Amino acid sequence: MSDQNSVSAHASDHISEHISTLGSSVAIWLILLACTGITVGAAFIDLGPFNIVVALAIATIKATLVVLFFMHVKYTHEKLTGLVVVSAIFWLFILLALSMADYATRLWR
Amino acid sequence: MPTSQTVVDEHAHENPALLHHFATESQQKNAASLGMWVFLAQEVMFFGGMFCAYLIYRYKYFADFGSASQQLDIKLGAINTAVLICSSLTVVLGVRAAQLGKRMALVFWLVATILLGCVFLGIKADEYAEKFEKHHVPGPSFSYHELLPGQEKLPAAERQYANPHHAEMYFSLYFAMTGMHALHMIIGVGLFGLLAWMAWRGKYTPEYYTPIENAGLYWHFVDIVWIYLFPLLYLIDRHR
């Protein structure tokens, strides 16, 4: 019976689907614009090898904000969405890490 | 037999967008959403291959890539980044309008997204035109005669120039990555054109707006690709 209830609750939850508020959307938009400004400013400061670290860290913050808030991953009830996102990042990590593990260690060339 | 009859009847009362092989609208929506996310995961791998190639060649031709990267215009890149972020906001507001059942607002935000997408592509076309003028497009007419980063401080006789073949590799990757990104933008603009037309005809309701939401996910993904392309191609080699 409780199972039945949860199913019907699930069936009706599309009506209470998360609707992002105007304020939070605009706030995320402003943060993204600010991050863009910061990353451009940081590119003109000589940080040595840390220029790339700062640039990619800011890019990752921006991408995370877009995925969580603009793509509604933070609010979704569907756990599979999170699984797909994490899998995609993990596969990308395998692709980049194993490729670089090869090329970066070819000292004889 | 009577059971299947009741099922058909049940569906007859429901949203006409509900396909018969789904039990509920929620299930149908979740399936469509999951399919879109799996498609995007595949897109991550697709762009990932090019990012990986860029990483390897930047590692191999570090100084030449620095020189070639400095040929790009940071200002145009930054403006384009801001334009894309604004277009992501208009998509969010479009999805919100669809959820709230505001038809005209939905059409407005979709058209705004299309316009911002066209602004991005216009600026990109301007950048490409400059590359053609400077013969920085890989191919038979490619020519590159620029200093390696930091060489301008040295006396003229000691200055070292970038290897044109290595710079050509940078521009090959630049055109492959930004070109494939721009192709995604063109497809997205076309998609939103279609959706704006359907939205205008009132096809989307708070009960059924899956195409708007999935097109939005696609657009945000294309935005994220640019969020990484911009620092990698334009910014990180500014200081050498």
Topology, element by element:
The complex is a heterodimer of chains A (109) and B (240).
Chain A: H1 2-12, H2 22-43, H3 50-70, H4 79-103
Chain B: H1 2-13, H2 25-60, H3 62-69, H4 74-100, H5 103-133, H6 164-200, H7 210-235
Any key phrases for this structure?
heterodimer, A: mainly alpha, 2 domains, 72% helix, B: mainly alpha, Four Helix Bundle (Hemerythrin (Met), subunit A), elongated
Tell me what the structure shows.
The complex is a heterodimer of chains A (109) and B (240). Chain A is mainly alpha-helical. Chain A is built from four helices and no strands. Chain A has two domains: 2-77, no CATH class; 78-109. In chain A, helix 2 packs antiparallel against helix 3. Chain B has a single domain, classed as Four Helix Bundle (Hemerythrin (Met), subunit A) (Up-down Bundle). Chain B has helices at residues 2-13, 25-60, 62-69, 74-100, 103-133, 164-200, 210-235. Chain B is elongated. Chains A and B meet through helix 1, helix 2, helix 3 and helix 4 of A and helix 2, helix 4 and helix 7 of B.
